[in-house]
Specification:
The structure is a homodimer of 335-residue chains.
Chain A (H helix, E strand, L loop, with lengths): L2 H8 L3 H8 L7 H14 L5 H7 L5 E6 L5 H16 L3 E6 L4 H13 L4 E5 L13 H8 L2 E4 L8 E6 L1 H14 L5 E5 L4 H16 L9 E3 L7 H13 L6 E4 L2 H13 L9 E5 L13 E4 L2 H16 L7 E4 L2 E3 L6
Parallel strand pairs in A: 1-2, 1-3, 3-4, 4-5, 5-11, 6-7, 6-8, 8-9, 9-10
Antiparallel strand pairs in A: 10-12
The structure holds a DNA duplex (30 and 30 nucleotides).
DNA sequence: CTCAACTTTGTAAACGCTTACGCAAATTAT
DNA sequence: ATAATTTGCGTAAGCGTTTACAAAGTTGAG
């Protein structure tokens, strides 16, 4: 059952059938009705493979997400999809996992489906700057790339980022200026964004004349990214005699773990321990008192991604790099 | 950049290039290496639509998710994707939003991108049973549909569910059997799964000879699904004089809200108030004490979805309905 | 060396659709 | 009434693959 069968049964040419399919105006209402009737009667469904071959644009944007399980990225997906849809674009999402080969596959999968552009989420993609990672350059030759929370200078690649460095620095300064001396820094990701945050923390310390102490900086791998794991880790740190009066972290959930540590070791928040989280997610509201958290304006960033993409696709030029400032949302966990 | 360009640059015919693409054995190793090298160098990605025109399958599964922002569904995405990928299938995700028109669009989008099958996540899709919702039947005529956590009897539709009714009933009974009398039931979703949970709660009460009291059953809309909102709501309930000694809910986050209510009103958990959550998500570990929660075996369910889909696609027959039992994970929030 | 059998590669015809182009017929303008 | 324009439709040329079939090349036995 194809367009030829329909054209024959309807007594018209395949071009007319195709025009009916595509809602072209160059068909008389009478013919249109007739062809539609025949299609309905025959239960005809156009073959999308063939369709895609002919069309140049599918009005589809590919979203590449390294980890859909991350609530922060999941939220980004929601925002991006909503905004693209509102502008007449469908989204195709490929959640690849963090391994490089998976990401390459994800990019190729989306390209093979002829997306008009791609949004790459999360700075896991940043290693494209490294030599030998040509897959992004190649992708950029075919369609515009917009990177969310990652910076990458290349033709046809556009970046939308939040200034994590400055945000973490300001959070650190805010803790110091409220009288804290020993700020524990907990982080999860060693990617570009993670490194910027860490650098911000260090810059914050130095801006107030304090040294960078390695014993205050701790990394949490994927399997340690849970509230109990962080709680237990801080308990053991305290047990070993480490003194700290504030915790700053790169993800809210780490700070929730810190809050739980405070609870079980009967340290009052914020009097005895100040805590600041990052992302201002729903985790920040789980604690008592609620967590002060860095809001990095995810929705704003996503909307910027979309408008950048739309500009590029419509031939207008767009800024290669768009930077937003994060905002420290103060709640009960800090003085 | 197409197969002709590659064939030209590699000095072979398009047939040979195609054979390399498809891993055909009828190519000499030397030629294969050479062609692969040229493809890599040129960043060539085959056009999936042209491909699909010849082959009949794109080796791609569509995942339909009503809300990627929901950590529970986000986790499901991760599990599904991992398992499909391990079996040679790519995944395409469409996060539609909950509105019916969005879901219809999502289904059509995936069909138009030529997926070999679709997994529909979350029982928001259940309303397909209602009259006039033919889009699922139509989709099922084209590709097999596997529904995760939703039941729907129809040709070419397969269901994988957890027995929410029984799980909620057992959780209720467990509370009653530990001496609780007045169990507050908080729920978010009115979809099929939500109704089963509610019915399970009611059945649990009746199995112990207790009446169903409307003043103990409370619905939380999307915008009330936050810890502070639930906390405040329970505070106001208590202020109005309602007595309750346990909280059971349809989502962990609602129970976190209950825990926070307990905290601010100085009721001890579990002595004065028992709390049970649902989904056994990371939220359950945020509280002190940690929440007892119903673990509905998401990973097991997802794997069942994948193996069901693979069976159907390979022509074997698969069970129309697969049911797993949830498990009550006891932690500190219950006696 | 010859011929058969097998391996490797190439040619060309689908696959089902879109669309540029062209020609009638219908409509409007002159 | 004739010319100019618009409308409706058909023809045919792609779109980028796959694959049947054919051709050419290779190997080994006689």
């Amino acid at each position: 059952m194809n367009i030829y069968d329909i054209s024959e049964k309807a007594g018209v040419s395949i071009a007319t059938v195709s025009r009916v399919l595509n809602g072209s105006s160059r068909v008389s209402p009478k013919t249109r009705e007739h062809v539609l009737a025949v299609m309905a009667e025959q239960g005809y469904v156009p073959n999308a493979f063939a369709r895609g071959l002919g069309l140049k644009s599918m009005k589809t944007i590919g979203l590449l997400c390294p980890n859909a399980g991350d609530p922060y990225l999941a939220l980004a997906i929601t925002y991006l999809e909503r905004a693209f849809r509102a502008n007449g674009y469908d989204c195709l999402l490929s959640c690849t996992g963090k391994a490089r080969s998976d990401r390459v596959k994800g990019v190729e999968l989306l390209l093979s489906k002829l997306v008009d552009g791609m949004v790459l989420m999360g700075s896991t993609f940043l290693e494209a700057n490294e030599s030998g990672n040509k897959y992004l350059q190649n992708a950029a030759k075919r369609v515009p790339l917009v990177m969310l929370n990652a910076a990458y200078a290349c033709e046809n690649v556009y970046c939308v980022v939040c200034d994590d460095y400055r945000a973490t620095m300001e959070a650190t300064q805010s803790l110091l200026d409220s009288g804290r001396k020993n700020i524990l820094y907990l982080y999860h990701s060693r990617n570009a964004s993670g490194q910027k945050k860490l650098a911000g923390y260090q810059a914050g310390l130095q801006s107030r004349g304090l040294p960078i102490r390695d014993d205050l900086i701790h990394f949490f791998a994927e399997d340690k990214m849970s509230v109990p794991a962080v709680r237990d880790f801080l308990l053991s740190l305290a047990h070993q005699g480490l003194t700290f009066d504030a915790v700053l972290s790169s993800e809210d959930i780490l700070s929730v773990g810190a809050a739980k540590y405070a609870r079980v070791s009967r340290r009052s928040v914020p009097e005895s321990l100040s805590i600041i989280g990052y992302n201002n997610s729903s985790f920040a509201l789980c604690c008592e008192p609620e967590l002060t958290s860095v809001d990095n304006k995810l929705e704003v960033l996503c909307n910027a991604c979309v408008s950048t993409m739309l500009s590029v696709l419509s031939g207008k030029d767009a800024p290669q790099k768009t930077v937003y400032h994060a905002e420290l949302v103060k709640r009960g966990s800090t003085l």
